[in-house]
């Protein structure tokens, strides 16, 4: 990936804000990025029986380093999803 974390986050923000609400960039099967109305944010999908669907996180340098391989793969072949269940969670 030639761009740094801040540039990648800005790139995702530009892409996602022009898409329908609750569109996500699917980085891997457990990690998504969504537009929160102000910036691109990340979330880990939960499947732990807690009733919560997502754990939100910022796309900071540490997170970008951890997800580097997934970010590179996504840039080569972007995958999007539409998660209507984000509506309440993001915009409440």
Mean pLDDT: 85
Tell me the distance between the termini.
34 Å
Tell me the β content.
15-25%
Q: What is the count of DSSP helices, taking H or I runs of 4+ residues?
A: 4
Number of strands: 5
| Radius of gyration over all CA atoms, rounded | 12 Å
Main sheet properties:
5 strands, antiparallel
What ranges have pLDDT less than 50 throughout 5 or more consecutive residues?
A: none
Which percent range fits the helix content?
25-40%
What's the overall geometry? globular
User: H/E element string?
Assistant: HEEEEHHEH
Task: Detail the topology: elements first, then pairings.
Elements: H1 5-17, E1 23-26, E2 31-35, E3 40-45, E4 54-57, H2 61-66, H3 68-76, E5 80-82, H4 86-91
Walkthrough of the structure:
- There is one protein chain.
- By secondary structure, this protein is an alpha+beta fold.
- The mean pLDDT is 85.
- The radius of gyration is 12 Å and the shape is globular.
- It is built from 4 helices and 5 strands, in the order H-E-E-E-E-H-H-E-H.
- Strand 3 (40-45) and strand 4 (54-57) form a beta hairpin.
- The longest helix is centred in the first third of the chain and has 13 residues, at 5-17.
- The protein has one domain (5-91).
- The chain has helices at residues 5-17, 61-66, 68-76, 86-91; strands spanning 23-26, 31-35, 40-45, 54-57, 80-82.
- Strands 4-3-2-1-5 form a 5-stranded antiparallel sheet.
- Helices cover 37% and strands 24% of the residues.
């Amino acid at each position: 990936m030639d761009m740094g974390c801040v540039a990648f986050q800005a790139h995702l923000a530009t892409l996602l804000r022009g898409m329908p609400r609750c569109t996500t960039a699917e980085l891997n099967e457990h990690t998504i990025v969504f537009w929160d109305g102000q910036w691109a944010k990340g979330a880990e999908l939960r499947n732990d029986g807690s009733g919560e669907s997502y754990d939100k996180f910022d796309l900071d340098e540490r997170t970008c380093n951890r997800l580097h391989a997934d970010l590179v793969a996504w840039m080569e072949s972007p995958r999007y999803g539409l998660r209507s269940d984000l509506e309440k969670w993001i915009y409440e």
